Amino acid sequence: MSKDGSAVFFTTKLDDFVSYGRKNSLWPYPFGTSCCGIEMMATLCSDYDMARFGAEAVRFSPKQADMMIVAGIVNTKMAPILRTVYEQMAEPKWVMSMGACASSGGIFNVYSVTQGIDTIIPVDVYVPGCPPSPEGVLHGLMRLQDMIQKGETRAQHREQALKRINLFSPFKTSTADDIKNAGYNAE
Amino acid sequence: MDINTPVPTIYGKDFEKHGEMWKTQIAELRTKFQGAIEEVRFPREYPTDVPILYVKKESVIAVLDHLRSAPGFEYGFLADLTATDEEIDPRFEVVYNLLSHGNMARIRVKTRVSEGQEVPTATTLWMAANWPEREVYDMFGITFSGHPHMRRILMDDRWVGHPLRKDYALRGYQLFPDTPPPKPELLEKSDR
Predict the structure, then answer these.
(1) Average model confidence (pLDDT) for chain A?
(2) B11 phi and psi, to 5 degrees?
(3) Pick from B154, B171, B177: which is nearest to A80 by CB?
């Protein structure tokens, strides 16, 4: 509806409309393990206010969240826990790797630290910094929103691959060859 | 410089408070445990803040028990239990840091152990030695005989090697992203 009450409509693709809804209602799961977690809290609080981007509903259960913010160092002993939490999240799900430690191991180039969480789970956005400023986190969030709108994220690639092989259809059962031909990579 | 060369230094102020007490205590230990104490490194003669007693590993528990409960000693608190890799023979030193709350004094007991040898457990004296001994086993591969639960505590159960040994690679990454299946024998056994 326009201001004067006349009916206005526009046409779009359903995928774009769904992506528009998804990108503006991200529910973060805070995987804060060290000092980056403090900066993430600052980003969520009123000064920087991640709610402006529709990401204020922080859920501490992975089953109710769709964006995981890994803020801080992930030790090798923490790796299976991170993997389990990621697998518990419902599709589509997005991962933001916040800070140097989560992205690459940072200064901890030793046996006990994973050299980047992308050795364990797929990552969509890396935010550099030690720790990153809240502006950096918000920039990463906006970049993730752009990627979701364009359908470039890993979760959407998985979704599209499943659609291509028609995995959701009740009338067709896909074989392992179908999955291979569609390029579906079950990361 | 040879590390065993005595270097006269002034290192810490504890010597002024407890020097005489330490001397009498060590003299008593020397008479009681003849031959068990290999070496004593004393403040002002060696760069250390508290006396270091080197004890043979066969009698380390007896010496620790005497230090813990004998009148005049009463080092009742095991502040820390750790180890060092010296890269000589014998290779490792297990370190017991003791604290006396009554005297507000500390003392340090060390025992030398070669690779593959076992040290008697201190959990018979202090229950608090349970997890530090597991950590020493995890990081150095020193096993403690009589320990109730001798397995890794910090690293993954599938880890190969012992990370704090000097010959372990600093960047010896091993990644186990999947959760290991629980072992039934570990579920039955309590940690305590």
Answers:
(1) 85
(2) -135, 95
(3) B177
- The CATH code of the domain at A14-150 is 3.40.50.12280
The answer to whether residue B160 neighbours chain A at the CB level (below 8 Å) is no
Position B153 in a domain: yes
Residue ranges, chain A, pLDDT below 50: 187
Structure tokens at A75: 């030790």
Could you state, in chain order, the average pLDDT of each consecutive group of 10 residues for chain B (192 residues)? 63 80 92 90 84 92 93 91 91 94 92 92 92 94 91 86 89 80 62 50
Q: What is the CATH number of the domain that holds B164?
A: 3.30.460.80
In chain A, what is the greatest distance between 2 CA atoms, to the nearest angstrom? Answer: 67
| Region class of B143: left (phi > 0), else alpha (psi between -120 and 50), else beta | beta
Q: Could you give the residue range(s) of every CATH 3.40.50.12280 domain in chain A? A: 14-150
Chain A contact for B168, CB < 8 A? yes
Complex ipTM > 0.90: no
Q: How high is the pLDDT of residue B170?
A: 82
Domain count for chain B: 1
